[in-house]
Automatic annotation (TrEMBL), chain A:
MF GO annotations: FAD binding; oxidoreductase activity
Entry keyword annotation includes Ribosomal protein: no
Record protein name field: Carbon monoxide dehydrogenase
Record Pfam families: CO_deh_flav_C, FAD_binding_5
Source superkingdom: Bacteria
Entry keyword set: FAD, Flavoprotein, Oxidoreductase
Transmembrane segments: none
Span of domain FAD-binding PCMH-type: 1-177
InterPro entries: CO_DH_flav_C, CO_DH_flav_C_dom_sf, Diverse_Substr_Oxidored, FAD-bd_PCMH, FAD-bd_PCMH-like_sf, FAD-bd_PCMH_sub1, FAD-bd_PCMH_sub2, Mopterin_DH_FAD-bd
From TrEMBL, chain B:
Highest taxon above the source species: Bacteria
TM region positions: none
Alphabetically ordered keywords of this record: Molybdenum, Oxidoreductase
Protein name per the record: Carbon monoxide dehydrogenase
Pfam family, one: Ald_Xan_dh_C
Organism of this sequence: Phaeodactylibacter xiamenensis
Domain Aldehyde oxidase/xanthine dehydrogenase a/b hammerhead residue range list: 19-139
TrEMBL record, chain C:
Ranges of residues in domain 2Fe-2S ferredoxin-type: 3-79
Descriptive protein name: Carbon monoxide dehydrogenase
Keyword check for Ligase: no
Any one Gene Ontology molecular-function term assigned to this protein's record: oxidoreductase activity
Cross-referenced Gene3D superfamilies: 3.10.20.30, [2Fe-2S]-binding domain
Taxonomic superkingdom: Bacteria
PANTHER family according to UniProt: OXIDOREDUCTASE WITH IRON-SULFUR SUBUNIT
Stored InterPro entries: 2Fe-2S-bd (IPR002888), 2Fe-2S-bd_dom_sf (IPR036884), 2Fe-2S_ferredoxin-like_sf (IPR036010), 2Fe-2S_ferredoxin-type (IPR001041), Beta-grasp_dom_sf (IPR012675), Diverse_Oxidoreductases (IPR051452)
Lineage, uppermost ranks: Bacteria, Pseudomonadati, Bacteroidota, Saprospiria, Saprospirales
Keywords: 2Fe-2S, Iron, Iron-sulfur, Metal-binding, Oxidoreductase
Keyword Ribonucleoprotein included in the entry's annotation: no
Length: 284, 789, 163
């Protein structure tokens, strides 16, 4: 339980962090809550030469309403989100998912920015962000840009983040009236990460589903939007029978993972069960 | 008045733990101490062609690097085993050497090949990465059954087909076969009792300290039995002089069997310290612990039980392949044989039993005793058979058990019960525990609820398990005849100080069991003094005369009895002094409530005054030695036999196969109870571990012998929200053959609980028909597949 | 390259030089001799190392000492006030919430944080609140009782004032 040697620098601001990244190049890594990075370093699975600590950068830690968006700073901890009234009002799946991450110790320090940047396929935030239609805001030496969450996760621990870019925030458009949401997670029993997590945001108008977005994590190498469900449910009544029919084929095109806890077949089955559970919770 | 026995006295040891002042091995820092990091094989089976340490040696802080070659050249022996089980044909078991570090080839993933010693933990770790090893990977075998097949890779060249021994117990096979032929129904199960990792929360650690000026060796180690470790270290491994070796097991953070054994790292730290003339510390990382702590269980068995029309058991036939791992750990050969085969009578009158066990080497870490050791495997086998048979014969599982139980006997008026498999049970009323458990469950009501739930598509299930265990290990002559290479008595010394305060030295070791409280209760009660006047000292071979340690639920039954023997001697001697002081004859005195009184008078002398007199013997009886200090060895007359009945209620999620344990009821009989609070705690902890095996735990080696779930990210430890509050009760049937009437409570929970949970899940799945057995742990996917099949 | 850090540990300010890679748990154990905080794993799961950093429960094996520069740290050694045990320490003793004692410091510190946020937890909330802490000895049964005991004790005087 000893990491390799490294230098440690505490960044004073986002711009400072970017300057430091540029200066130290590939050898450097950002350190947010450290709850993905430090465990890997302790096992020497990761050995950066420089750590740039961004945890104390106050401009990254906030949850606020900005016009018709909810904006969450990358430095907001899982606990910040779990207890945020604003987050709850926007999408109840936000605090719901936050509460299902790790344990109280992890939630106190792990950040949403770190989680999204790390892009563990079994992490909880990616699916929720997709269901919420979030945008991920990135800043680098060449300026700022945003990427829709749906396009942000590109593969196994891979994202759209480019070298020297820092994830600053995510923004979530405020949902239309009549929208409800839920996140349901089937836990890997040892680590308690998601074997399958399903986040659903559903807008019902006049007894019919007007808009639905389901994000699935855990199942595949990267979180994805379950387009099949969207297609099948829009315009339909939110009945159990319709939901049952809609979840069929969830994950059919995904790169489904398998391990000793859950085979590919079982994971695909769970994806249907959990997509249904999330949809039911968001509609019934 | 002092009266502590039977009371829930709060633990005297707690304060130091609650305030962060416990002193565990890794907390100890000695002046000039060095740190060791052990380089281990990443392969299950591989030849070492070359080790190049030159780069590592030049690293900052590195003091020395030793490899297996250095160990071999020093001429020391390897780690021995403490038990011999021979082949059926009389051939000696295979006992290949187990070197402290291997020089030629690694035989399991985690086998030590080199040790780096540096000024700091960090420097030792850094240097280890710079050692280059030229490995030549060899084919490996991890399954005990596959290992015995022709052509399987050989772990040790001297053990053909990887067989360490084969062994048989009970009635002759032909008799059992004959009885089976007459059976109306035979229930057959083939299953694996999977490998589990003990996972004491404190990982193992050892500090070796050799002091050149005095020639003294000290080993601080995470051990359940410091004296046994010293004996093995001195007599077998290093050949160092026992009288100059001190082994200290300070506070130890749980053991559950895994810290009984003498491990290579203990001897290695002493060996290194002797060479470097500085103390050397090694502390296991958790990943290292997963790879190198002895695992438990890992039996592959076929079990058949024959019944007559009415459901009476006629015969039991068992064939087991027991995985021993790559080398023989301290008790390894004993666990699947004398601690498993002998318990196959269970609580039943089964007239014919034959058990056949093959001990097998594989390319996996050593397998040895884990909480229950052999007895959980026996219980699992019997109790899965019982519930399965009930299902197959359409009988009630509780009824089937009650029908086959051995009738009650107290071991005093009625003799002990002679089993078909070598044991004589001491005393028991087996019907009573199951009946009490049924009452607590509300059995009939539950069955109605279950029927209702099934109508709604909910899967509720109930499972039973009854068990007996052989504890209080063990009569030395008996175990000697069975192959033990040590006696299994215990030592208890009671030193009354001049002021009447009492120091008690026990060879048992407490690593959570609360000896410092329970033993003090016994002493305070017997001597009629306040609990606070008694101090229990354990774990240090320099202060405690000798001892065999704590395992097999033996501490109170054997260690406590040794203390009682010394207390008797104290009281006897005290009476002589008291008689002299009171000018009465010894026969006219009675000892109660801490004083000797001349019967029928109010003339008395207090314990403290007698103690002072013994140390200031001015006015003193003739021919009596001064002082008050007695030591006793207690060698038990028999094992003790706790037993009980456990019931689990589960609900299975139809969609996912996830099992929720809703209730767990345990009724245990552990004989007399000194501290009910502590006994309850022991039961709770055992239950969690047994339930853990049923639902969550299991070490997995792949075909290449790679441990694929060697961390808490992959090996499921039961957490608080995985378990319900337990509903427990007990009956009390005293042990007739030890002075305290106690049987032992450490393993009970772990023995009874596992099959109860599995039986409950099988019961929940009943609407899906009777199908093939489910393998533990009952992961959601396994249960789901069972429903799909 | 050693870095100089300053933090308040159990009410006392400490300044030391450490390597950047020094984990907070090793800093407490090795540099400050506060060995009450334990290490039970290397994957951040077991919780034996739980302490409070700026009032929040944190796994000190998953934080660098340099990250805690400027923070306020409380360990098990700092829990009792003026020689009087904290209600949780008392609860663990009264309800036999510990056996080997190895998980206990982390368990108690996690429970301190738990009760801080939810002074009146249900049994289920207690069990869920302990998901980051393993105990191999007690089966958690008496740990739950111990925390219930402490919750009652902490709430009692408040109730008395309110009524
Ligand atoms: C015991 C345990 C249990 C856990 N359980 C769960 C769980 O159930 N579900 C779950 O989703 N997660 C779980 N996690 C992971 C946890 O949520 C982490 O906190 C999270 O994944 C990473 O966030 P962090 O702030 O700790 O990031 P760090 O570990 O600091 O960083 C992670 C990676 O992201 C990079 N990074 C961090 N911040 C930024 C940024 N702003 N911009 C660009 N790159 C950045 C870092 O360089 C690093 O490569 C668990 C962790 C532990 C230790
Ligand atoms: S030591 Fe296990 S979580 Fe920190
Ligand atoms: S008391 Fe031993 S691990 Fe909890």
């Amino acid at each position: 339980m000893v990491t390799n040697k490294f230098d440690y620098i505490r960044a004073e601001s986002v711009d400072d962090a970017i300057t430091l990244m540029v200066k130290h190049g590939m050898d450097a890594k950002l350190l947010a809550g450290g709850h993905s990075l430090i465990p890997a370093m302790k096992l020497r699975l990761n050995a950066p030469g420089v750590l740039i600590d961004i945890r104390k950068i106050q401009e990254l830690r906030y949850i606020k309403k900005d016009g018709n968006k909810l904006v969450i700073g990358a430095g907001a901890t899982h606990h910040d989100i779990a207890t945020s009234e604003l987050a709850h009002q926007t999408y109840s799946m936000l605090p719901e998912a936050a509460d299902l991450i790790g344990d109280q110790q992890v939630r106190n320090i792990g950040t949403i920015g770190g989680s999204l940047a790390h892009a563990d396929p079994a992490a909880d935030w990616p699916g929720v962000m997709i269901a919420a239609g979030a945008s991920v805001h990135l800043k680098g030496p060449d300026g700022e840009r945003s990427v829709p969450a749906e396009d942000f996760f590109t593969g196994f621990y891979m994202t759209e983040l480019q070298e020297n870019e820092l994830l600053t925030a995510i923004s979530i458009p405020l949902p239309p009236e009549g929208t409800r949401s839920a996140y349901k997670k089937f836990m890997q029993p040892a680590s308690r990460f998601a074997i399958v997590g399903a986040a659903a945001a559903v807008t019902v108008k006049g007894g019919k589903i007007e808009r639905v977005k389901v994000g699935i994590n855990g199942l595949a190498d990267a979180a994805f939007a379950a387009g099949n469900i969207e297609k099948a449910l829009v315009g339909k009544e939110p009945t159990e029978a319709n939901i049952d029919a809609a979840v069929e084929g969830t994950g059919a095109d995904a790169m489904v993972m398998a391990d000793h806890f859950a085979s590919e077949e079982y994971r695909l089955h769970l994806a249907k069960v959990y997509a249904k559970r999330a949809l039911m919770a968001a509609t019934q | 008045m002092t009266n502590y026995i039977g009371k829930a006295v709060k633990r005297v040891e707690d304060k130091r733990f609650l305030t962060g002042k416990g002193r565990y091995t890794d907390d100890i820092v000695l002046p000039g101490m060095l740190y060791a990091y052990i380089v281990r094989s990443p392969y299950a089976h591989a030849k070492i062609n070359n080790i190049d340490t030159s780069r590592a040696e030049k690293m900052d802080g590195v003091v020395k690097i030793y490899t297996g070659k250095d160990i071999a050249e020093s001429g020391i022996n390897g780690i021995p085993t403490g038990w011999q089980v021979n082949f059926k044909n009389g051939d000696t078991m295979k006992e290949p050497p187990h070197p402290l570090l291997v020089a030629d080839k690694a035989r399991y993933m985690g086998d030590g090949v080199a040790v780096v010693i540096a000024e700091s933990r960090e420097e030792a770790r850094d240097a280890a990465d710079e050692i280059d090893i030229d490995w030549e990977e060899l084919p490996a075998v991890a399954s005990a059954k596959k290992a015995t097949e022709d052509g399987a890779p050989l772990v040790h060249d001297e053990a053909p087909n990887n067989k360490c021994f084969d062994w048989e117990l009970g009635n002759p096979k032909e008799e059992v076969d004959k009885a089976m032929k007459q059976a109306h129904h035979i229930t057959t199960l083939e299953f694996t009792n999977q490998r589990v990792v003990p996972n004491a929360m404190e990982t193992r650690a050892a500090i070796g300290q050799y002091e050149e000026a005095t020639g003294k060796y000290t080993l601080y180690t995470t051990s359940q039995n410091p004296h046994l470790t010293r004996l093995l270290l001195c007599a077998f491994v290093l050949g160092i002089p026992e009288h100059r070796v001190r082994v200290v097991a300070p506070d130890v953070g749980g053991g559950f069997g895994s810290k009984i054994f003498h491990y290579a790292e203990e001897a290695l730290m002493i060996w290194c310290s002797e060479r470097l003339k500085r103390p050397v510390k090694w502390t296991s990382d958790r990943s290292e612990a997963f790879m190198t702590d002895a695992h438990g269980r890992d039996h592959i068995s076929k079990a058949e039980m024959g019944f007559d029309k009415e459901g009476n058991v006629l015969a039991l036939r068992v064939k087991t392949h027991a995985n021993l791992g790559a080398y023989l750990s301290t008790f390894a050969p004993c666990v699947p044989t004398w601690l498993h085969g002998t318990l196959l009578q269970g609580l039943y009158v089964t007239p014919k039993i034959n058990v056949d066990v093959t001990g097998v080497f594989t390319n996996t870490v050593m397998v040895d005793a884990y909480r229950g050791a052999g007895r959980p495997e026996a219980t699992y086998l019997l109790e899965r058979l019982m519930d399965t048979a009930a299902l197959e014969m359409d009988m009630d599982p509780a009824e089937l058990r009650l029908k086959n139980f051995i009738p009650p006997f107290d071991g005093v008026e009625q003799p002990g019960y002679q089993t078909q498999v070598a044991l004589q049970y001491d005393s028991g009323n087996y019907h009573a525990v199951l009946k009490r458990a049924l009452e607590m469950v509300g059995y009939e009501k539950f069955r109605k609820e279950q029927a209702e739930a099934r109508k709604e598509g909910k899967l509720l299930g109930i499972g039973f398990s009854t068990y007996i265990e052989a504890c209080g290990i063990a009569p030395s002559a008996v175990v000697g005849a069975l192959g033990a290479r040590a006696g299994l008595y215990e030592v208890g010394q009671v030193r009354v100080q001049p002021t009447g305060k009492v120091s008690v030295f026990t060879g048992a070791h407490s690593h959570g069991q609360g000896h410092e409280t329970t033993f003090a209760q016994v002493v305070a009660d017997r001597l009629g003094i306040p609990l606070d006047d008694v101090e229990i000292i354990h774990g240090d071979s320099d202060s405690v005369a000798f001892g065999m340690g704590t395992y097999g639920s033996r501490s109170l039954a054997v260690g406590g009895s040794a203390i009682v023997k010394s207390l008797d001697k104290i009281i006897e001697k005290g009476a002589k002094i008291a008689a002299h002081k009171l000018e009465a004859s010894e026969e006219d005195l009675e000892f109660a409530e801490g004083k000797w009184t001349v019967k029928g008078t109010d003339k008395s002398i207090a314990f403290g005054d007698v103690a002072l007199t013994a140390y200031v013997p001015h006015d003193y009886p003739e021919g009596v030695e001064p002082g008050m200090d007695f030591s006793s060895f207690y060698d038990p007359a028999n094992f003790t036999y706790p037993y009980g009945a456990h019931v689990a209620i589960v609900e299975v999620d139809k969609d996912t196969g996830h099992t929720k344990l809703k209730r767990f009821i345990a009724v245990d009989d552990v004989g007399n109870v000194i501290n009910p609070m502590i006994v309850d705690g022991q039961i709770h902890g055992g239950l969690a571990q047994g339930i853990g095996q049923a639902l969550f735990e299991g070490a997995m080696y792949d075909e290449d012998g790679q441990l694929i779930n060697g961390s808490y990210m992959d090996y499921t430890m039961p957490r608080a929200d995985d378990l319900p509050s337990f509903e427990i009760d007990r009956t009390v049937t005293p042990c007739p053959h030890n002075p305290l009437g106690v049987k032992g409570a450490g393993e009970a929970g772990c023995i009874g609980s596992t099959p109860a949970v599995v039986n409950a899940v099988m019961d929940a799945l009943r609407p899906f028909g009777i199908k093939k057995d489910l393998e533990m742990p009952l992961t959601p996917e396994r249960v789901w597949r069972h429903m799909q099949s | 390259m050693p870095t100089k850090i300053t933090m308040t540990v159990n009410g006392q300010s400490v300044t030391k030089e450490v390597e950047a890679r020094t984990l907070l748990v090793h800093f407490l154990r090795d540099n400050l001799q506060l060995t009450g905080t334990h290490v039970g794993c290397d994957t951040s799961n077991c919780g034996a190392c739980t302490i409070l950093v700026d009032g929040n429960a944190v796994k000190s094996c998953t934080m660098l000492a340099v990250q805690a520069d400027g923070s306020e740290v409380t360990t098990i050694e700092g829990l009792s006030q003026n020689g009087e045990m904290h209600p949780l320490q008392e609860g663990f003793r009264e309800e036999h919430g510990l056996q080997c004692g190895f998980c206990t410091p982390g368990m108690i510190m996690a429970a301190v944080a738990l009760l801080d946020r939810n002074p009146n937890p249900s049994e289920q909330e207690i069990r869920e609140g302990l998901e980051g802490n393993f105990c191999r000895c007690t089966g958690y049964h008496n740990i739950v009782r111990s925390i219930q005991y402490a919750a009652k004790k902490i709430n009692e005087p408040k109730k008395a004032v309110a009524s």
